[in-house]
Write a structure and sequence with these properties.
Elements (H helix, E strand, L loop, with lengths): L8 E12 L2 E12 L3 E5 L6 H9 L6 E6 L2 E2 L5 H7 L1 E4 L11 H6 L11 H10 L1 H5 L10 H13 L5 E5 L7 H17 L3 E5 L3 H7 L2 E6 L2 E7 L5 H7 L3
Parallel strand pairs: 3-8, 3-9, 6-7, 7-8
Antiparallel strand pairs: 1-2, 1-4, 4-5, 9-10
The chain binds adenosine-5'-triphosphate and magnesium ion.
The site of adenosine-5'-triphosphate (ATP) has 12 residues, from α1.
């Protein structure tokens, strides 16, 4: 049984340690994401960003540490329960079923996550990404990489998450679709119905959209704060390749 504790954060990650195949990958990662905010988790390749997200979703077990959503400890819950509790995750790369239609892609998994088709949410997805409505009957695999990313985000939104988790949504995507995804994140932020955890290496995208940031370096947080505090010195030390 989990005990609710008061917290001003939507989600709080504390001292999270994770190993893969006997090697420690995360060495005590901690951060808090405020209600209705966009939080950017940044860092160079291989520092543990995706591992952090997988651990949040329960796809990797924690060696130690806690994850608290709305005051409730969720780090022992299986992935499906975390999804029901309000986490929606769009993994790095393309996460769609290429042989199913766009419409089937949107609805598959909703039931498993305990969610129902909701006209208001579907209309909102069509507003955010008009291409989804246009291509409803097309096979997912026929969409461009960027459109597949939009479909994966749309599917996550249909579960009405408390926290939307996006792993490098701009990676390998053409600039006009990056702009559309950025606009969608802005709209979601303005609506204020969820917090967003964005893993990104594209600095301008983070600067434009993020309220707060944390930077990972070799499995721990080396810098964090409000986006306005992300100095050129920090960028040079921990982000520039
Ligand atoms: N399945 C795995 N088996 C062994 N090592 C792994 C595995 N997954 C990740 N790692 C290692 O864990 C470290 C962190 O990987 P992770 O994918 O979390 O990095 P990342 O910050 O998301 O990088 P990128 O920016 O390239 O996506 C890396 O050193 C990686 O090699
Ligand atoms: Mg990654």
């Amino acid at each position: 049984m989990s005990v609710a504790t008061p917290t001003s954060e939507k989600i709080l990650v504390d001292n999270m340690r994770v190993s893969i195949g006997g090697s420690t990958i995360l060495r005590g990662v901690g951060f808090g994401i405020r209600e209705k905010s966009v939080f950017c988790l940044m860092g160079r390749n291989g520092v543990g960003k995706s591992t952090t997200l997988k651990a949040l979703m329960g796809l990797l077990p924690l060696d130690s540490g806690t994850i608290t959503l709305d005051g409730e400890k969720i780090h022992r819950m299986p992935t499906a329960l975390r999804a029901r509790a309000g986490l929606a995750y769009v993994p790095q790369g393309r996460d769609i079923f290429p042989h199913l239609s766009v419409e089937e892609n949107l609805y598959i998994g909703l039931k498993a996550r305990g969610a129902k088709k909701d006209k208001e949410e579907i209309d909102r997805v069509f507003t955010l990404f008009p291409i989804i409505r246009e291509f409803l009957n097309r096979k997912g695999g026929m969409l461009s990489g960027g459109q597949q990313q939009q479909l994966a985000i749309s599917r996550a939104l249909l579960t009405k998450p408390k926290l939307l988790i996006l792993d490098e949504p701009t990676e390998g995507i053409q600039p006009n679709i990056i702009d559309q995804i950025g606009d969608a994140i802005k709209m979601l932020r303005e609506e204020g119905k969820m917090a967003i955890l964005l893993v990104e290496q594209y600095l301008d995208f983070c600067r434009e959209l993020g309220d707060d940031f944390a930077i990972l370096d070799r499995g721990s947080v080396c810098a964090s704060g409000q986006m306005g505090d992300l100095s050129d010195g920090i960028v040079k030390e921990f982000l520039t390749v």
